[in-house]
Design goal:
This protein is an all-alpha fold and 309 residues long. It is built from 13 helices and no strands. The protein is 78% helix and 0% strand. Helix 1 crosses helix 7, helix 2 crosses helix 3 and helix 4 runs parallel beside helix 8.
């Protein structure tokens, strides 16, 4: 498996596709940094101004999303691009038969491809984070505290797991389908459903089940919508990273947030450990989704007839 892992890493680094993805990631990081610097002056007027460095990743200028929002929306594309032809591409090229003719185990192929993809995703996310951190530190002139560094490390880990899930899903479609175009259309369709249409579906379902006739039904509608939205990996990532990057967020309940805002409650700073307790279910959910997608592709690949492909 180690030999195949090194082979996949070398193939990624030598491919024009990875260079394009890497350049696009750095470009998005630069755009999000520009947005954060433009919106930072308005964000520093509150009590959380001591965490200015974290706001480089959580604040936008209103017209351009923040760094975290870019990761949520565009990050899945990085994973999809890295994995959509990992298996059926080699089948169509005839290289998978020759590869499996060597004295290696079949599971080493799928394991090596997935681990190499995770490493490449880690390189992309770390490069984007370091770019925003370095240039942002130069522009604002305020070094991060120790807790900000640890929160940023947790955010980076969440981002890698989130994008790796989409890469595992693209590998699954690559195993299930024979043609590369079919796997691309399938996985992009799933991404579009969760990125664009899922919120509309949940909103329509909530309106049908809980028409806002009474205050109690309105409260139930909000609670139902929030719980159902957490089926989406994008929602899990958004809530988790928002809590990690904003130490003043002490609840994930939308109604409690609204009540705290309108009652003028005192905003306190949660330590990192307490923030992790809030988002621990989200991390478990993302890890479960990532592992489920990989295990499904592993099982299907191990049972496939390669010689007839």
């Amino acid at each position: 498996m180690y030999a195949l892992f090194r082979k996949e890493i070398a193939d990624h680094l030598d491919s024009l596709r990875f260079l394009i993805v890497f350049a696009m990631a750095l470009l998005l990081a630069g755009v999000s940094l520009y947005s954060a610097l433009g919106g930072l002056s308005g964000a520093m007027g509150n009590d959380a101004s001591s965490f200015v460095f974290l706001r480089l990743f959580a604040v936008g200028n209103g017209s351009i999303p923040s760094f975290a929002a870019f990761i949520m929306l565009v990050g899945p594309l990085f994973g999809l691009i890295l994995g959509f032809d990992s298996i059926n591409g080699e089948k169509n090229a005839g290289t998978l038969n020759r590869l499996l003719a060597q004295p290696i185990h079949r599971d080493a192929v799928i394991n090596g491809k997935f681990l190499a993809g995770v490493v490449m995703i880690s390189i992309i996310v770390l490069s984007m984070t370091l770019l925003v951190s370095g240039v942002g530190l130069f522009r604002i002139g305020i070094p991060p505290s120790g807790e900000e560094v640890f929160r940023l490390m947790v955010f980076t880990f969440f981002s890698i797991v989130y994008i790796s899930f989409w890469m595992g899903l693209s590998i699954l479609f690559s195993v299930l389908t024979r043609h590369v175009a079919t796997s691309v259309l399938s996985v992009v369709g799933v991404w579009l459903i969760f990125a664009i249409f899922f919120g509309l579906i949940v909103q329509g379902l909530t309106t049908a089940l809980y028409p806002p006739v009474t205050e109690e039904l309105a409260v139930r509608a909000v609670e139902f919508q929030q719980q159902f939205m957490r089926v989406s990996p994008s929602q899990l990532f958004t809530e988790a990273t928002g809590t990690i990057l904003d130490p003043t967020r002490n609840t994930l309940n939308y109604l409690q947030m609204i009540e705290h805002y309108y009652t003028g409650g005192v905003t306190g700073m949660l330590p990192l450990g307490q923030s992790l307790l809030l988002v621990w279910p989200h991390l478990v959910g993302l890890l479960a989704l990532m592992l489920t997608s990989f295990v499904a592709s592993y099982i299907v690949f191990m049972k496939q007839e390669i010689r007839g492909a």
